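Practice problem: predict the structure.
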Amino acid sequence: MKIYAHRGSSGTHPENTLAAFKEAARLEIFGVELDVHLTQDDKLVVIHDESINRTSNGKGFVRDLTLSELRAYDFGNWFGDDFKGESIPTLEEVLKIFQNTAHHLNIELKSDIFEYEGMGDKVLHLVEKMGLAERVLISSFDHEAVRNFKKSAPLIEVALVTMDVLVDAYDYARFIPADALHISYPAALRKMTKEAMLKGAIIRVFTVNEVLDVQALQQIGVHAIFTDFPEKMKHVLEAGKIDK
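Answer:
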């Protein structure tokens, strides 16, 4: 079972910051997950929420602020004094951290609330320019965005993100079409997961931070987990002699 660092090493560092991604980059894990929004001046920035209220000392929606305006806020101090001064990173800055590593890069398009017209094309242009297309996985709760991205870049892996219990997850993914399903825990414990895997689906599960949850997912045989504590989960899987 493979490990993705969820929003970087977000259990030990402020999520979706350069500090969190640098920590993930030093770990011998399979991949890293990050979230992308579009600023008012059409810059790709890495942050989970639509607004900056939760993870900075500022307020407002990412889409209503320019990159320069966003840079004026502190995105690390909320997590701890050691991270004071962390700024919101651009997607390019994050990808540069992993340019010379072997990590698989899961970029989640956060267009399920705001449409962010053209964001998928911007992401595609950047990953191709940086030579990372073969190591990138594009995912989203916005399944329309997943479909559109796959049409533009059929050779890049895409995944549907869902918290729902689907009737036939495998057939739905093929309809989009998507290469994998990213399912929330504990919805992943439902029979849809086993049924989908029996048909050949790739299943990755988020967000898994407890040892007992890892063990439950091992029994099912899912392909990967997203965790806020990648180093901890790496040790858990190694102790169980399971593929990391």
